[in-house]
Amino acid sequence: MVEPVAIALPGRRRGMGRILPAGTRIPVAVWLPATAVAVGSVLPAAVLAITALSGDRNAWSTLVSTRTLELTARSVGLAAAVTATTLVIAIPLALVLTRTDVPGRGFLTVGLNLPLVIPSFVGAFAFLSAFGPTGMLRDLLGADRIPDLTGFVGSWAALSLFTYPYVLLPTLAALRDQDPSVEDAARSLGVSPTRLWRRVALPQAKPAITAGALMVSLYTLSDFGVPSIMRFDTFTRVIYDQYEFGDRSTAAALALVLVLITLVVVAVQIRVRGPLRLESTAPGARRHRDPTRIGIWRWPAAGAAALVMLASVGVTAFVLLWWTATGLARGNPLGSGFGTELLGATTSSLGLSLVVAVLAVAAVLPVAIVVVRHPGRFASTLENLTWASHGLPGLVIALAFVAVTIAWLPAMYQTIYVLVVALCLHFLPQALGATQAALGRMNPHLEEASRGLGRTWSKTLFTVTLPLLLRGLVAGAALVFLNVMKELPVTLLLRPIGFDTLAIRVWEPAVDGFYTKAGIAGLVLILVASLPMAVVAIPEWHRAR
Amino acid sequence: MHERPHGQGRTRLATLVCLVLVGTAIAACGGSTDTLVVYSGRNRELVGPLLERFHTETGIRIQVRYGDSTALANALVEEGDRTQAEVFFSQDAGTLGIVDAAGMLTALPDTALDRVPAEFRADDGGWVGTSGRARVVAFNTDSVPAGEVPSSVFDLTAPRWQGKVAIAPRNASFQAFVSAMTLEEGEEATRQWLEGMVANDVQSYPNNLTIVEAVARNEVELGLVNNYYLHTVRREQGEVPVENHFLTKGDPGALVNASGVGVVAEGKASEDALRFVEFLLSDASQEYFVEETGEYALVSGISPPEDSPPLADVTGEQPDLSALGAELPDTVALLESVGLL
Fold first, then answer.
1. What is the DSSP letter of B29?
2. Which fold has domain B36-132+257-309?
3. Is residue A220 part of a domain?
4. CATH tag, B134-255+327-337
5. Chain A hits for B34, Cβ within 8 Å
6. Which residue does chain A place closest to B43, by CA atoms?
7. At B136, phi and psi to the nearest 5?
8. Digit-coded pLDDT (tens) for A16-35
9. Residue A74: predicted pLDDT
10. Is A6 within the bounds of a domain?
């Protein structure tokens, strides 16, 4: 096992060797909330450590069994395969969507990011219904049985198709934010577009790409839905089992291993991405970028993008439509009040997602400022802490919050506040990646100029920094929003009694075989989520034209 | 030189206000305090209409926390005396046993307990069964003639069934069956059977429902499930080429488990909670279980579900259902050691 040396790793640090920020120039209004946020993020891991240590018997012996090692290898292998695949899918897509005149960019941008909102169990379900050994594809081919798509291959394919937007969304934001003047200049000197993309555009997007890759790997490590439906044993599955019918200290000990793996993955990501400050001239002086005309290649490019969309959102939407249509045609009853309940769940989902998204972005902003503007040991410690819990399955996070609220804040147990805080902490890293990347692309001289001209620190924040960061912040908020929309384990365990979200309304009937209802709720979930996606994507598209 | 954090303070305040407003708005939809709080391990789709009927008939408002039976049992134990729950309505006897063993269920009156046979209620009166679920072998009628389906689980290790049988090792009712088998046949016999199944390439599925669907698609030929899943699949998907085969009475594979209810209270149960228990044991509710969920009624005088033998013909000698909860850790260890978990 690799040592968790992440804290000492980050490369180019400038000054500030001390952990404590005393005597540095980080404003107290930044480091204090940043520290609070980072410490809050460690809470689930701390609860786990206590549970694991207070365990009676063989909690620690489980850790060194060959079975654990085998599961670690399977989980890490799956995460590596999925991450590599999502990079291969997302980077070309991002380039095509931001740099070329491919037709239907607005539609493709919305559609290609939509898998973000599909809960992984729904995706896996749909995938299996369509391509399983006895699924729809078999019926279409008229075969008796087609090759088995479960196990590693099925998990890898489903997870790749449903997580590539974690790379795509931040990369799109990064590529769009880049100052076009460099590329324009290079182009006027006759540099070919592909070389330009490789040498100029992508290196500048590296922080965004690696942050996305990190999210994909941690999502894969912590996901329960896909491996369980695809019948592939992973680490997370065993943690679930231990919680469900084993003892909690063993589960906690296993989950701590996941925290260690997370820290290693985060360290690797920090290494790979390099320095976050990549500003050229300011994105504030935004200019129009002419898309590269790729001529006849527009069509195969659009075709490839559409194919990815079809394989992920398309297949899921088709299967959900199929469930709905066949169920309604058969006259399956939906029960009285189904519409009202669905409307209520939609409102709850939207409200909850919006609140958590705004809060998460507000909470990570101080962390991002420290990490980008004041790199050093303190910064990398904060960053690592913020990520520490992100590789943990939602169930583990939720149980930590249950334990803490019951013990110390019984009045808050099963209130909306605890749910909001837990979801916020759970998805902080999603907001952090995008915010950090955006801040890194922003030229600090602009802030310094503002300060030099006499504006206060806070006024500069509101009139200069935030407006310039807006695109990155919106991308971060959008990621959190869509994640909350589809979240299940945390919502299930921490929600107030009677509080339903759309994701719950898909999950409950689906696991019990009421596919008509699940299909309708799933379609509503996808439609409702495409609205904010469209809001983010369509102005971009107009601008790009 | 520290700058004044006014601006940032303002945003944070603004978001906090925003949060509180939305939070209150969402919480307001929750409901009032004067209601009966039920933790239901049985899902909304199946029992929701029944709970609504209770409200209509009695005027008592119910708030339900739906969830997985085991997860809710764990939550109840963790919440302890701080729990809001007054009633635990669970999918299987084992989880009720866990909460009862934690001393959180109060003894029910004999009038309620006496409605069901002794094997379907707790000895200490902590819980009472509300419906019965028999373990059966679901088989694909296109691939397996009815006469060929084995009458004992012990026959499933035969070469004829290699790679053709599905089980759900993570499912509570499968685990209850393995626990019962251990209590009846001993651990060695149970281990040998499980190892035989693994050697015979038994197929693992996430749950009973996916097994019945896989049998319907002929992905596997046989599946060890509870009797009522076929009802759910038929109701949603129409006719499918699947039938339930009831094993010989007394076979370990023929366990009849119960879903049931207990009142969470220290000392005396509240009137509303008791009315809820009585309601579930009423003839009308018992008929609801037979017709709507495809389960067995536990109260006498109500006919069995469609195409099923009477309960008395299926229930043989079987271990105390309350004891199955305590057996669970060993069963999980056993399933792990043979590689099924």
1. T
2. D-Maltodextrin-Binding Protein; domain 2 (3.40.190)
3. yes
4. 3.40.190.10
5. none
6. A508
7. -135, 175
8. 333 434 444 778 888 888 99
9. 92
10. no
Q: What is the value of pTM for the model shown?
A: 0.84
**Pair of tokens at residue B171:** 């499912």
pLDDT value at A218 more than 70: yes
Residue A57 corresponds to which tokens in the numbers above?
Answer: 């018997």
Which residue type, as a one-letter code, is found at position B72? L
Question: Is there a common fold for B36-132+257-309 and B134-255+327-337?
Answer: yes
- Asked if residue A19 is part of any domain, the answer here is no
Answer whether A216's CB lies under 8 Å from A165's CB.
Answer: no
**Alpha-carbon distances, residue A112 vs A164, A303, A305 (angstroms):** 9, 12, 8
Where residue B60 falls (left for φ over 0; alpha for ψ -120 to 50; beta otherwise) is beta
In DSSP notation, A189-217 reads TT--HHHHIIIIIHHHHHHHHHHHHHHHH
For residue A135, pLDDT beyond 50: yes
The CATH number linked to A112 is: 1.10.3720.10
Asked whether residue A244 is domain-assigned, the answer is yes
- Hey, is B319 helix, strand or coil? coil
Instruction: Using CA coordinates, name the residue in chain B closest to A229.
Output: B206
Q: What is the mean pLDDT of residues A89-111?
A: 88
Distance from CA of B111 to the nearest CA of A (A): 31
Q: Please give the Cα distance from B290 to B299 (Å, whole number).
A: 11
Domains of chain B by residue range = 36-132+257-309, 134-255+327-337
Q: Is the ipTM of this complex over 0.85?
A: no
Distance spanning both ends of chain B, measured CA to CA: 60
CB B2 within 8 A of CB A27: yes
| Predicted local distance difference test score (pLDDT) of residue A197 | 80
Beta carbons of A497 and B65 less than 8 Å apart = yes
Query: Is there a contact between B270 and B104 (Cβ–Cβ < 8 Å)?
Result: no
Q: Give the one of B7, B23, B213 whose C-beta lies nearest to A416's C-beta.
A: B23
Angstrom distance (rounded) from CA B331 to CA A170: 46
Six-digit token pair at A428? 């902080």
B132 close to B311: Cβ distance less than 8 angstroms: yes
- Whose structure tokens read 């954090």? B5
Give chain A's largest Cα–Cα span: 77
From the list A453, A465, A519, A67, the residue with the least C-alpha distance to B11 is A465
- Of B277 and A269, more confident: B277
First-last CA distance in chain A? 50
Residues of A whose CB is below 8 A from B18:
355, 358
Enclosing domain of residue A327: 24-276+299-544
Neighbours of A380 (CB within 10 A): 22
Count up the domains in chain A and report the number: 1
What whole-number distance in Å separates Cα of residue B41 and Cα of residue B74? 11
Backbone angles phi, psi at A127, to 5 degrees: -60, -45
Are B134 and B151 spatial neighbours (Cβ–Cβ below 8 Å)?
no
